[in-house]
Amino acid sequence: MITANSILTFYEFEPQMITNLLLILLLLCMSALTSGSETAMFSLSPAQLDKIRNGRGKSDKAIIELLSNKEYLLATILVLNNLVNICIVILCNNLIDSLVNFGGSAGWEFGIKTIAVTFVLLLFGEIIPKVFANYNAEQMAKLVAVPMMWIKTILKPFTCILVKYSSTIQDHKPHKDNLSIEKLSDALEFTSDQTKEEKKMLSGIISFANTEVEDIMHPRVDITALNIEAGYDEVKQTIIKSGFSRLPVYKESIDNIEGVLYVKDMIPHIGKGDDFEWKKYLRKAYFIPEHKRLNDLLEEFQSSKIHMAIVVDEYGSTLGLVSLEDILEEIVGEISDESDKPDEDFYEKLGDGVYLFDGKTNIFDLERVLELEDGTFDDVKGEAETIAGLMLEAKKEFLKKNDTLRSHGIKFTVEVVTGHKVERVRVEQELK
């Protein structure tokens, strides 16, 4: 026995304490892995999840299965982590009692047994592993996925009780009275004194604040733009053919927008020859990111007194174009003028139940023409908004002429393809 002072007395270290110490270190590693697995599993990015879904390893499959029921996964992690930490505390208490005699000093005993052990647990069992897992989420998730599947099975009797009890509490949780967009939308469905047009406008107002530019922009393939090297005759022909009042002007490629040409600036020079220097009338283009919200963009349009913006991605490449009219149409519905094509120009009826659609036709318009319920193709379209996008989402590869897709009693056949762009799709309602 070694005496440190009049209060603490240290016992000699005995060989059998090595087992206790090794067990504490092992449990501390388990606590670190468990804490890290929680951070890793729930911080995987969409890109990482897509990569894991396409993987063929056991760990990839285990991650997807674990994340398919996040409540059970979280319950498993919490139960395991608490069990391990409790065991660490008990073993540390026994080891400290075997090494130190506190001589009745409650202060020293509290300081060593509680504060010191808690510090070690937090540092090595929580903080360090979670910081590491946050920066190495995919690697950590793959490391713990398969063992976590086994542990989930073993602890299922306990986790079932926890999940069931937490669900009961959630069901009885008092609801706040503040209105959400979802509640406003639901309330709108029950109103009966508004016309269809009024309901559509109110729905547009409700969803307006959460709508992003990428949801309404014209994609780059549909942009009518001018090459800065074009002669004035070509510029006039493009203006007449497009019918637009503003045209983006690019140098070499559409990813390098030099400015915007306002047609009204060209009216006084309508009779000039091909060598007319129209480029000096270019106005500065307005660029915006794809995720800008419409209410913010509308304020910028109003304050800057502009009507059109070029949508770019994080690399500066052109994604599309959005105008003030597009924003207003999101609220009040389609605004038609003398330059717009008839509403039904996007398809041609070939026979009974047989149609030829433009590939970029919106799925909503397809469902309307075929008299299908809204959202009929929601289970197969993914993030797609057009018929071509729907087929690409289902096929997972570039489409070729005569490629077909059958869904919900509808047969889609690619009729015309230019490069990788689907121009025309034959749509047939198959008889049941």
Report the mean per-residue pLDDT as an integer: 81
- Measured as a percent range, the helix fraction is 40-55%
Shape: elongated
**Poorly predicted runs:** 175-179
Verbal overview:
With 432 residues, the chain is α+β, with helices and mostly antiparallel strands. It has three domains: 2-171, no CATH class; 213-332, CBS-domain (Roll), CATH 3.10.580; 347-429, Uridine Diphospho-n-acetylenolpyruvylglucosamine Reductase, domain 3, CATH 3.30.465.10. The protein has 16 helices and 15 strands. Strands 11-12-15-14-13 form a five-stranded antiparallel beta sheet, covered by helices on one side. Strands 4-10-9-8 form a four-stranded mixed beta sheet. Helix 8 (181-190) runs antiparallel to helix 9 (196-208). The radius of gyration is 33 Å and the shape is elongated. The model is unreliable at 175-179 (pLDDT under 50).
Question: Which helices and strands, and how do they pair?
Answer:
Elements (H helix, E strand, L loop, with lengths): L1 E2 L5 E2 L6 H25 L4 H9 L3 H10 L2 H30 E2 L4 H30 L1 H18 L1 H16 L9 H10 L5 H13 L9 E2 L6 E2 L4 H11 L3 E6 L1 E10 H4 L20 E3 L4 H11 L3 E5 L5 E6 H9 L14 E5 L2 E5 L4 H7 L8 H4 L5 H9 L8 E4 L2 E9 L2 E9 L3
Parallel strand pairs: 5-6, 8-9
Antiparallel strand pairs: 1-2, 2-3, 4-10, 6-7, 9-10, 11-12, 12-15, 13-14, 14-15
Helix pairs in contact: 1-4, 1-5, 1-6, 2-3, 3-6, 4-5, 4-7, 5-6, 8-9
